[in-house]
Write a structure and sequence with these properties.
Blueprint lengths: L10 H32 L21 H10 L1 H32 L2 H16 L6 H10 L7 H4 L8 H12 L3 H9 L4 H12 L1 H16 L3 H6 L8 H8 L7 H34 L1
Helix pairs in contact: 1-13, 2-13, 3-7, 3-10, 3-12, 10-13, 12-13
């Protein structure tokens, strides 16, 4: 008597769901309590002595800290500068990294080995070791005290790591897919845009979120290249608020909340993209 054909085991699917649940619980456990304390501290009335113990619900509740943060720190102007840098740098960085990663996945293996090795060596170089030569170049070009030095690294994909991640993603695609594109007489650029890039959307979402967070929170580069207060980005504006006396610490916390919200929104959007991709893969 023939045994009935069995479908795929549900164990891998259950393990994947359990892993996502545990990961989400870990993220909530690690990040949510500090965020709650940050928000509650920002709603404390400025000018009062600091509380000896953290208060989840301050008494009295006050939004004065947000008003003073915007007025004293110039957060509105700084936020616009940060948005401008992010809007230009993030898409450009992801675009360059995706193009370079695709080219790296399609060139000869010997050349790929050389480029990958050079990229790994570049990753080992401390970022601080490049500050002086980069500053000399931008000063020679007359670009200091502008936002250009904050956007220029995007022309190189920001980091060799991004290129390597895209390289691994494009390399993991079936070789028959690229052969089919050659049969259809698609150019390399059209193959990248119409076929390869849509298949690595989770990688694009993850790198976009990572690039945005790093660009949004970048403090060292604006500190070195920007001197005009009208060009300050959000991290520099927060630094000025951190110099207030302890009784006005809620003002600084309010500025930190304003700076944190966009990063949380981008992370949530990227996470949604990951979950949607996992659901389609399981289906």
């Amino acid at each position: 008597m023939r045994g009935r054909a069995r479908g795929p085991s549900p164990l891998p699917e259950r393990a994947a769901r359990l892993g996502r649940t545990l990961g989400a619980a870990f993220v909530l456990l690690v990040f949510v309590p500090p965020l709650l304390l940050l928000v509650s501290g920002s709603l404390t009335e400025p000018g009062l002595p600091p509380s000896p113990t953290p208060q989840l619900v301050p008494d009295p509740l006050s939004t004065t800290g947000y008003e003073r943060a915007v007025d004293l720190g110039g957060l509105l102007r700084a936020s616009l500068n940060s948005v401008l840098v992010a809007v230009l740098a993030v898409p450009l960085s992801v675009l360059v990294a995706a193009l370079a990663g695709f080219a790296l996945a399609r060139i000869a293996p010997r050349a790929t080995t050389v480029v990958v090795a050079a990229s790994l060596v570049a990753l080992m170089v401390p970022a601080t070791a490049l500050l002086v030569p980069r500053f000399a170049i931008f000063r020679l070009l007359g670009l200091t005290d502008t936002l250009v030095p904050l956007i220029a690294p995007a022309l190189l994909g920001t980091s060799p790591l991004y290129v390597l991640v895209y390289y691994l993603a494009f390399r993991a695609l079936p070789a028959d897919l690229y052969d089919a594109c050659l049969v259809e007489d698609l150019s390399p650029l059209r193959t990248w845009w119409r076929v390869a890039l849509p298949l690595v959307r989770p990688v694009t979402a993850g790198l976009t979120a990572l690039t945005f967070v790093l660009t949004w929170s970048n403090f060292l580069d604006p500190l070195i290249y920007v001197y005009d207060r009208e060009l300050f980005t959000l991290p520099l504006a927060l630094r000025s608020l951190s110099l207030l006396d302890p009784t006005n610490f809620p003002v600084f916390l309010a500025g930190a909340v304003i700076a944190t919200v966009p990063a949380l929104v981008v992370f949530a959007l990227a996470q949604r993209r990951f979950l949607r991709h996992d659901d389609r893969a399981e289906g």
